[in-house]
Specification:
Elements (H helix, E strand, L loop, with lengths): L14 H18 L21 E10 L1 E7 L2 E4 L11 E9 L2 E7 L7 E4 L3 E5 L4 E4 L2 E4 L1 E7 L2 E9 H12 L6 H21 L7 E2 L15 H9 L3 E6 L4 E3 L4 E2 L9 H5 L22 E7 H13 L11 H7 L1 E10 L5 E10 L2 E8 H8 L9 E7 L4 E8 L7 E2 H9 L4 H8 L4 E4 L2
Parallel strand pairs: 1-12, 15-22
Antiparallel strand pairs: 1-11, 2-4, 2-8, 3-7, 4-5, 5-6, 7-10, 8-9, 10-11, 13-14, 13-23, 16-21, 17-18, 18-19, 20-21
Helix pairs in contact: 1-4, 2-3, 2-4, 3-4, 3-9, 3-10, 6-8
The structure holds zinc ion.
Length: 438
């Protein structure tokens, strides 16, 4: 997922003030804002969904050491559920060594620190609702899993509260409320899809661009919470009214004019995505057009890295690596461009001695080999430019991201133009039905 930064980040505030503010806001939200009649779906809350309100967000992996501070912290072994006795306000240092969580309570000046070994899993909870991890506030509780390379740290919290913190991380609370609501519904749907599909893992979503960017509760604000509350429980679904499922509600920064189908990017279709859509709303995005120049050695290094990561196409000859390492790149061209304007196949032309070899690569793989922050979308063309020593390649393209599902910049502009949340979602997810599950 892409992050849009608008420069409007809300500064962290003291956690005790924050808790009081959130409590006050939550009570006001409940009284002042109700679902608009058009969105008060006749579908009753589905059985099973109400139990799925807790999401597991992986905050860190393979971390060697971190600190947790909070009020009345309950530190326990996850299996025996035996709480360690701690002071009312306490600070802990956690380490994972040889498959076990080690906890040390910092006792303060002049006192003796206390150390415990908790086993392979541990949890930290607080009745206060918030705890600080390395100084940053998070909600509810964390679970720790000791691995060979360090600790895996997973935040368990209410899905709606997770969305409060997501608004200013993945997009911005400064957007129009309808655009924020559309984005919140997509993010809620994406999280529920992950919760349904990854039960055997310790977590449902990563806290970085792999899934959805989440930095804790410090950047929650009143406007974000209000929109999340207004859209509570609304998700995008596919299937019949009696048997529906959340779709994997992909979204991306800027589509550049048309959205893409999942099978064109990841090789397999996803229910609810039957067609890409035209988008005339993201032309003002700073990423609508982009260009980047890479030297031939950069491209060659990227090809070698890609081949060594075992993603070489099966159709390539066995000695392809020798051609790339010893030969010369003399051509790069889009072989096949699909209906959304994205390159499906890139061909590269190599010479070695007096021989030549053409190697073709799917556009999405070319993009991931070269780096998705360099080749910002699969809608591009490459032009050879003679540099002082080597050939250089000028890439010119449109859009930013994989292009599947909602175009975030387009949604933002649709909101500014007066489109409703439901209209924005219908535009970018034409095969989905909006349902309220809690
Ligand atoms: Zn767009």
């Amino acid at each position: 997922m892409m992050r849009l930064v608008f420069g409007g980040r809300i500064l962290p505030i003291r956690s005790d003030v924050f808790i009081a503010t959130i409590a006050a806001v939550a009570s006001c939200v409940a009284i002042l804002f109700e679902l608009p009649p058009a969105l008060a779906s006749p579908v009753p809350p589905e059985r099973g969904f109400a139990q799925k309100r807790r999401v597991r967000v992986r905050l860190m992996d393979a971390v060697s050491e971190f600190r947790v501070r909070g009020l009345d912290l309950k530190v326990s072994n996850s299996i025996a559920r035996k709480n360690l006795k701690a002071d009312l306000t306490s600070e802990w240092v956690f380490k994972c060594v040889r498959g076990a969580v080690h906890a040390q309570q910092l006792a303060g000046v002049g006192k003796q620190n206390r150390s415990f070994i908790l086993g392979a899993q541990a949890e930290v909870r607080t009745p206060a609702g918030f705890l600080l991890i390395n100084g940053r506030p998070y909600r509810e509780e964390i679970r720790l899993y000791a691995g060979r390379r360090g600790c895996e740290v997973v935040n368990h919290l209410d899905l709606e509260k997770y969305l409060d913190g997501l608004v200013n991380a993945e997009f911005s609370a400064r957007w129009s409320e309808e655009a924020i609501a559309a984005q919140v519904v997509a993010a809620r749907t994406y999280a529920i899809y992950q919760m349904n599909h990854y039960r055997k893992r310790h977590y449902d979503v990563e806290s970085d661009v792999t899934d959805q960017v989440y930095g804790g509760s410090a950047i929650e604000d009143f406007r974000a919470s209000r929109v999340v509350a207004k859209s509570q429980g609304l998700i995008l679904t596919t299937g019949s009214p009696r048997n529906f499922k959340p779709l994997k509600a992909f979204y991306h920064s800027t589509c550049g004019g048309a959205t893409e189908l999942p099978q064109k990017v990841w090789g397999k279709p996803h229910p609810g995505f039957q067609t890409g859509v035209q988008c005339k709303f993201c032309q003002s995005s700073p990423k609508f057009r982009w260009q980047v120049t890479l030297g031939s050695p950069d491209v060659v290094r990227a090809f070698i890295r890609g081949m060594k990561s075992r993603t070489m196409p099966k159709t390539w000859p066995k000695d392809a690596l020798r051609w790339i390492e010893k030969g010369k790149l003399i051509g790069l061209a889009a072989d096949r461009v699909n209906a959304s304007g994205r390159v499906e196949q890139v061909s590269s032309l190599w010479t070695l001695g007096d021989k030549a070899l053409r190697l073709s690569l799917p556009g999405s793989r070319f993009r991931s080999w070269l780096g998705t922050t360099q080749i910002q979308s699969a809608a591009f063309r490459a032009v050879a430019v003679q540099g002082t020593r080597d050939l250089k390649w000028l890439f010119e393209g449109r859009g930013y991201g994989h292009g599947v599902g909602m175009c975030q910049w387009g949604a933002k502009v649709m909101g500014e133009k007066g489109f409703s949340m439901a209209q924005i979602l219908k535009h970018y997810y034409p095969g989905a039905v909006l349902r309220k599950v809690w």
